[in-house]
């Protein structure tokens, strides 16, 4: 089947929530407690939040589909006229390592170039080596580290930047 990458639609909110909840839990199992994972999937990945992001003019929200099967997504949030924050890039486990994440990123990069955006920022939990390695592979570089409080837990983030040429 052919891979399609396109703008997310509100009618897909429940399927997006399912992909997010599944991939987030798989990614952060062993890094965060099950309580934190549950709070995030019910709060950050709520239908209301997903729908609001799809409707927002300040958010780029793309989905990857094989046939009608939603298998991945990318979400970028506008910080200012020159910068976007990459908030999410997730692909279901059984479709990882097939270049789908790179294709989601490449499609979003085309949109950002049309908007004359100069850079993309991303923050990754320092124990998420798989993501850090992926972002290095596609051209991001580390610019710093910071800590944040997430539902009462101190987390340590690697800050990375991709300069758009």
Question: Would you give an account of this structure?
Answer:
With 165 residues, the chain is α+β, with helices and mostly antiparallel strands. The protein has a single domain (3-163), classed as Aminopeptidase. It contains 5 helices and 7 strands; from the N terminus they run βαααβββαβαββ. A 7-stranded mixed beta sheet has the order 1-2-3-4-5-7-6, with helices on both faces. Helix 1 (13-28) runs antiparallel to helix 2. The termini are far apart.
Keywords:
MshD_Acetyltransferase; Acyl_CoA_acyltransferase; 7 strands; GNAT_dom; GNAT family N-acetyltransferase; 5 helices; 165 residues; seven-stranded mixed sheet; alpha+beta; Aminopeptidase
Overview in brief:
The protein is of the alpha+beta class. It has five helices and seven strands. It has one domain: Aminopeptidase (3-Layer(aba) Sandwich), CATH 3.40.630.
